[in-house]
Amino acid sequence: MRKLNTLLLILFLLHSARHSHAQENKDTQKKPLFEAIDAYVYSASQTRKQSKKYFAEVKALADTNDAQAHYYLGLLQKDGIGTKQSFKKSRRSFKKAFDLGNEKAAYCLGYYYLKGFGDIPQDYQKAYKWFKRSEEPIAKHWMAKMQFLGLGREANKKRALKLLAANELYNSKVLREQYKEANPPTQPTSTLFKEVLAATTVAKLHGLEGLHNPPSYNRLLGNWEGEYLELDWSKEKALRALPLSLSLSEEEGINQQIGATIQITDSTTTAQGTYSAGKLALTQFNVPIQKQYTDYPNFTHLMTHISALEFRELSLDNETVLVARLTADYPVWQEMANPGFFMLRKKTPVSKEAQQAFDAQA
Q1: Which of 7-11, 32-36, 185-189, 319-323 comes out lowest in average pLDDT?
Q2: Where are the beta strands (DSSP E) in the chain?
Q3: In 22-73, where do the E strands start and end?
Q4: Higher pLDDT, 29 or 77
């Protein structure tokens, strides 16, 4: 009996050693694959063949209930690498990864709900809940941002600073120094914004609700000035208002071509576009917009690609105000930009006499 027990023990130890060795081999093989995918996701030289290869390898590992593989499967599904892009499938993969013990997946789920990607509804409460479940420093960083900006909760500077102080992330240290000198943003108080908002809400303005009159091509041409309203992701409040000027001129070509020059604070850019039924579709319209707060010392402006402006007229005290909703994204992050819109008044031309007086004063 004792010999039998000894034999069973030996067999068990041999099986355990083989299983441990197999697991070590599996982990050794996974690491270079995942490191390669980390670099590949942001590479400008992706190929269809390589994308499909990475997806197939990750999918095979995910089918063995590997938590890290499910996380990377979610990344590939998010960007449509080797498969059709699907935020819904990506969310399921991240959820599975979290259930299997991957902390970073909880951060990704929080980020999805924070901004509302694709067909995933924007939800601050769910975003904060998922960030809180994650031990990733970047998740704690975003919790502090939500606390300071008042996203889905009352703005609380003290709580935000405490979260940043306890976080090991370098970005949190950079951001904390700015938050210490600032107060949580409040609704912009410019005269134009207050006048327009008196009869509607920020969300309705962004949705162009009740605004049914797109300006004609000829009426749109000219010089305009006003504000760029940058909104939170729920589109319910404006985080800030930036001074803006927009010059639209007639261009030669088929259809209603327009040349556009835009200046937002200290950044100016020019592009061409086509105007139809209230929508100005733009090509290569990239403008660096100064960030409200930055996580990096030298990253003060964020390149914003504006692909379209959708215009509507708004009557205000016998004056026409233009509301223009932006379709925009951040190329460096490969994701949509903060929702926002322009509010514009026609710039009053300066008479020759007035210009001469200004020049003399200067």
Answers
A1: 7-11
A2: 222-231, 238-250, 257-264, 267-276, 279-283, 286-290, 301-316, 319-330, 335-336, 340-346
A3: none
A4: 77
Tell me the average pLDDT across 56-73. Answer: 96
Residues 6+ away with beta carbon under 8 Å from 29:
none
pTM above 0.90, yes or no: no
Which range has the worst mean pLDDT, 57-61, 162-166, 259-263, 296-300? 296-300
By C-alpha distance, which of 122, 331, 302 is closest to 230?
302
Sort 261 into a burial class: Cβ within 10 Å, 0-12 / 13-18 / 19+: middle
Q: How far apart are CA 126 and CA 158, in angstroms?
A: 22
Distance, first Cα to last Cα, the chain: 107
Calpha distance 304→183 (Å, rounded): 25
| Both tokens assigned to 256 | 């209603």
Instruction: Tell me, rounded to whole angstroms, the distance of Cα 128 from its chain centroid.
Output: 16
Which residues does residue 270 pair with via DSSP β-bridges, in sequence order?
261
Tokens representing 86 are 């699907």
Own/partner contacts of 82-90, CB < 8 Å, gap of 24 or more, are 82/51, 82/52, 82/53, 82/54, 82/55, 82/56, 83/55, 85/118, 86/118, 87/112, 87/117, 87/118, 87/119, 87/120, 88/118, 88/119, 88/120
Question: Which has the closest alpha carbon to 341: 228, 214, 212?
Answer: 228
Q: Residue 20: what pLDDT?
A: 46
**DSSP code of 235?**
S
Comparing CA positions, the residue from 232, 249, 250 lying closest to residue 240 is 232
Q: 262 pairs with which residues across the strands?
A: 246, 269
Could you tell me the two tokens for 321? 């105000």
With a CB cutoff of 8 Å and minimum separation 6, the contacts of 175 are: 141, 144, 145, 164, 293, 294, 295
173-206 pLDDT, tens per residue? 999 999 999 999 998 888 888 888 888 999 999 9
Burial of 231 (0-12, 13-18, 19+ CB in 10 A): buried
